[in-house]
Write a structure and sequence with these properties.
With 260 residues, the chain is α/β, with parallel strands linked by helices. It folds into 3 domains: 119 residues, P-loop containing nucleotide triphosphate hydrolases (Rossmann fold); 65 residues; 56 residues, Orthogonal Bundle (Arc Repressor Mutant, subunit A). The chain is 47% helix and 14% strand. The protein is built from 11 helices and 8 strands. The strands form 2 sheets. It has a 5-stranded parallel beta sheet with strand order 2-3-4-1-5, with helices on one face. Strands 6-8-7 form a 3-stranded antiparallel beta sheet. Helix 5 crosses helix 6 and helix 5 packs across helix 7. The longest helix is centred in the middle third of the chain and has 18 residues. The two termini are 38 Å apart. The mean pLDDT is 93.
Amino acid sequence: MEITGQPRIANRLKVVLYSLYKNGKGENLLFVGPSGYGKTKLALQTAYYMANGMNFSYNIVNEGENIEPIFYGKEKVHILDEIHLMKETEILYPYMDLRSKILIFCSNIAGKLPEAFINRCVIFHFDEYSLPDLMKIALQSLEFELEEDKLIRLVEASGRNPRILLDGLVKQLNMVNESQPELLDDFDSLLLNLFGINENNLTEECIRYLTMLENVGGKCSLTRLSALLHLDQRYIETSIEPILLSRKFIKIGARGREKV
């Protein structure tokens, strides 16, 4: 498995997986990090590797959903994404304690998970990506040559978030290069007109978010922000907040979102 930009995780995961592969036992792995940092991708790669390309399940936890039936199957590896949405993690403890299967949990809000749950896991914290690593990640997906200064601008415009960089920017730039490559010459105008990204590397939606947060007193729940902005909560969490968090414009706590 190739893991770009997360050397600590790569080194630790190799040791853990080799041990599990050798002794045939199960374990509980918890991947924790901001949205868009590659937790799900790494979980899928890990499951594919440990299950020999088959015999694993992937499930996104929905609040209030009973996920216990998934453990009745023959799958050797189970991925439970967005595990922080699960209200009663206690039902998982018997399966976690058995350690007969490999359970991979992903969360961007580890603080919402009970201590009893966390203590049963081997935890992998995703570090912030460096500029060189993100430039490397972008270059792996770009289908054309891009000058270094434009590449740096692209990375900064993504909020240094790999998912936003690849899915939100690089993918569409490849399309621009195929259809209207001349637009790449005026890169600042392209970012503004195509993505709504201004000279401060903020989108119109980021500015709306900050303005709304200020209008309600600087603190607000995600549910209320979603209603006020008329945007899906998941979209806010994956496409807007990662940029604002990386720039230290907001912080997320137990009481919701707060303007810094």
